[in-house]
Amino acid sequence: MKKLVLFDLDGVIVDTKQVHYEALNDAITQVDPKYIITEEEHIARYDGLKTLTKLNMLSEEKGLPYTDHNQIYNSKQELTIKHFSKIPTSEKMRNIFKTLREDGYLVGCCTNCIRRTALVALSKVGVIEYLDVIITNDDVKNPKPHPEIYWKAMSMMSCLPEETLIIEDSPYGLLAAARSKSHILRVKDTKQVTLKNLSKKLNEIKMGKQQL
């Protein structure tokens, strides 16, 4: 029976949430600093959403001109890539992914990041060689919190929700995972993504006589 473990990227595989937050605000500041997102706003409402969704929210709620979206978006992506190129290799994450593959699991990453930044991050961390599937914001019509990204990964791997475990941290990501009807391991950050926690969750699922 096929078994699939899907990881979110930001806050799960790499600690890059702050990079995305700061890069977007830096890009917004180039247009007008009055539209920046405060930390409180980010935590409460913006965390886990794709950049274009955040820009639309800023236009609707703060009056950011829609004509500035392209400039901010392009600048934010370039700033993000610059920061991502400095991500160090994580032997801890490499060991987790390597062990899962050796134990017979299919492994994937599903992220609201665009494909370019996701591939840079996964390569720098050192886990891309262990991934069977990578689904990004560029690959779906409906980003998280819609479950399409997880459904697509499961479909490509020929796995059912009951055969899938999703590791997520953000509210929107967790909502997407819940809507996919898969098993979920909720983490606060990368520190909680450990072989011990993963093994415990996988064993709990097995002991519950649920398919995985």
What string gives the helices and strands in order? EHHHHHEHEHEHEH
The first-to-last residue Cα distance is 8 Å
> What structural category characterises the helix and strand content?
alpha/beta
The best one-word shape is globular
Uncertain ranges = none
Structural Rg = 17 Å
Strand fraction band? 5-15%
Number of strands: 5
How many separate helices?
9
Strand order of the largest sheet: 3-2-1-4-5
Could you estimate the helical fraction of the residues in percent? 40-55%
Largest sheet: 5 strands, parallel
What does the secondary structure layout of this molecule look like, with pairings?
Blueprint (H helix, E strand, L loop, with lengths): L3 E4 L9 H13 L9 H8 L4 H12 L6 H16 L6 H12 L3 E5 L4 H11 L7 E3 L12 H9 L7 E5 L2 H9 L3 E4 L8 H13 L5
Parallel strand pairs: 1-2, 1-4, 2-3, 4-5
Task: Pick out its properties.
alpha/beta; 10% strand; globular; 212 residues
Provide an overview of this structure:
This protein is an alpha/beta fold and 212 residues long. 49% of the residues lie in helices and 10% in strands. The protein contains nine helices and five strands. A five-stranded parallel beta sheet has the order 3-2-1-4-5, with helices on both faces. The longest helix is centred in the middle third of the chain and has 16 residues, at 69-84. The model has no long low-confidence stretch (mean pLDDT 93).
